[in-house]
Amino acid sequence: MQGTILLVDDEPSILNALERVLRPEVSRILKAPSGQAAVGLVELDPKIDIIICDMRMAGMDGAETLNKIASIRPDTIRIALSAQTDAATVIDCVNRAQIHRFIVKPWNDDELKTIVLDAMQSRWLGREHNNLQAEQEEQCRKLRTENQELSANLQRQTEELASAKSIAEQTIQSVRLLMARLMDAYSPGLRGHGRRVANLAVQLARLIGRPEYEVAEIETAALLHDLGKVSLPTEIMQKHVDTMSAEEKEIYHTHVISGYEILRQTEGFEAIAKIVRHHHESVNGNGYPDKLSDKDIPLASRIIAIAD
């Protein structure tokens, strides 16, 4: 099995005997003749997986050795080896050395192999768990970073959209007022008419419970409902409808189409254009320009017709 095991004992014969038993089972074996030497090897080699350490050694004993190793490499698997089997010795090893297993000398070779293989498997599983945990933490970190970036981008886009919307609304408002002033300047008869119709249309729309975005469309369409009249000949605009000839009335009726075409080709006014086109339709079908009747006429156009 792949892995590194460190054997620690101050008796060379014990080290050699342990190596003979474990050599076929483990790919790499290190040996230390003392506790100090073992600690030094662990400090230099982070790949050591298992330490088997004798408890009775001159100088630094096994419990102290394993305790120091635990502070350096806490994830290593530490196994105590001792001829002493009394309860006090075992408890001391467990408490001081934080050992995983206690092996009694003389050991059984097969049992020793099993213990080491199980320990190596446990070590491998622990390493895999740590790797998976590290990967999960890294993925979580990346997700957090991505979420923060997405939130920042979303916030920035929201602010940009809000700014763009505000600019667009201001532009539409400016264009709307410009067109209204153009009509006022074109014909004294139209001066203030659009604003008055718009005020009435807004009141009617709200009275029947239309949503505010629709009220805003109705207000704009009402303000501009006679925009197409700027395309009519001056002599026709100077006459009252009742005094016009049939031919003049036919020309006069084209003002709703002219207004529709002007607005349809103006960005942001496409919906307004349809309302303006149909504000002279009649529920009985005798209106113009498309002879629509009843509910085929847009509601906003009917509201403006009433206000007009």
Task: Please provide a brief summary of the model.
With 308 residues, the protein is an alpha/beta fold. The chain contains 12 helices and 5 strands.
Number of strands: 5
Give the structural class.
Answer: alpha/beta
Topology as H/E string? EHEHEHEHEHHHHHHHH
Overall residue-averaged pLDDT value: 85
Distance between the termini: 95 Å
How large is the count of helical segments? Answer: 12
- The neighbouring-strand order within the major sheet is 2-1-3-4-5
Q: Rounded to an integer, what's the Rg over CA atoms? A: 47 Å
Task: Report the principal-axis shape.
Answer: rod-shaped
In helices, the fraction of residues equals 55-70%
Which helices and strands appear, and what pairs or packs with what?
Blueprint: E1 4-8, H1 12-22, E2 28-32, H2 35-44, E3 50-54, H3 62-72, E4 77-82, H4 87-97, E5 101-104, H5 109-186, H6 193-207, H7 212-223, H8 234-237, H9 246-252, H10 255-264, H11 270-277, H12 299-307
Parallel strand pairs: 1-2, 1-3, 3-4, 4-5
Helix pairs in contact: 2-3, 3-4, 6-7, 6-12, 7-11, 7-12, 10-11
